[in-house]
């Protein structure tokens, strides 16, 4: 049997054990659990439109945190981007959308949503803004009103990365051919 200790003699480990015993019996409400421990919301398949794949994504992201990237058109400074996206965030707040905004570049911002089910409505609002070049949501790039004519290809997936990778491969190959030390090492 464990000895009874005086509470005044408890150290940090004893206090942690006592806290665990108290919390073990507590019932934590579902809303208080961290997002990764909450059970997923049930999906109502009757609301899914087979012609719109976005409807499936909308239902699966409901209640989950989601981030979207927004690019401001033109060549704005970071301060201009801050002001423009602040106006958009204020408009969304007035429409009862809980959106947090983080500036990640001179013309780029992240909009973080607590409930991903509203992401496509917010995306529709953003792409209709005059200074919005594009919105990236779940790997899809949606051109905005402010996009240049050459970039208004509807709903493209990110080709920029593959293009950059190909250019980098070409550069590395040309460097290998020109570099004498590399050529000698290959001969060995």
Automatic annotation (TrEMBL):
Entry keywords, A to Z: Chaperone, Endoplasmic reticulum, Signal, Wnt signaling pathway
UniProt-annotated stretches for the region Disordered: 21-45, 143-188
InterPro entries: MESD (IPR019330)
GO CC annotation: endoplasmic reticulum
Biased composition annotated in UniProt, kind: Basic and acidic residues: 146-188
Keyword presence, Cell membrane: no
Location in or out of the cell: Endoplasmic reticulum
Biased composition regions of type Acidic residues, renumbered to the chain: 23-32
Keyword Signal appears in the UniProt entry: yes
One BP annotation, GO: Wnt signaling pathway
Molecular function via GO: low-density lipoprotein particle receptor binding
Family stated for the protein in its record: Belongs to the MESD family.
Name this polypeptide is given: LRP chaperone MESD
């Amino acid at each position: 049997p464990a000895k009874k200790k005086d509470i005044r003699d408890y150290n940090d480990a004893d206090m942690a054990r006592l806290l665990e015993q108290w919390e073990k019996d507590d019932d934590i409400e579902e809303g208080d659990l961290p997002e990764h421990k909450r059970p997923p919301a049930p999906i109502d398949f009757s609301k899914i439109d087979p012609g719109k794949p976005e409807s499936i994504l909308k239902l699966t992201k409901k209640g989950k945190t989601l981030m979207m990237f927004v690019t401001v058109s033109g060549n704005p400074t970071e301060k201009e981007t801050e002001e423009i996206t602040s106006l958009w965030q204020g408009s969304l707040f007035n429409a009862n959308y809980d959106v947090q905004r983080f500036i990640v570049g001179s013309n780029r911002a992240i909009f973080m949503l607590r409930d991903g089910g509203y992401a496509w409505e917010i995306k529709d609002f953003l792409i209709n803004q005059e200074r919005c070049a594009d919105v990236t949501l779940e790997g899809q790039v949606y051109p905005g009103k402010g996009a240049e004519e050459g970039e208004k290809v509807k709903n493209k997936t990110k080709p920029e990365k593959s293009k950059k990778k190909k250019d980098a491969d070409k550069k590395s190959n040309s460097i290998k051919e020109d570099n004498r030390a590399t050529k000698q090492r290959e001969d060995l």
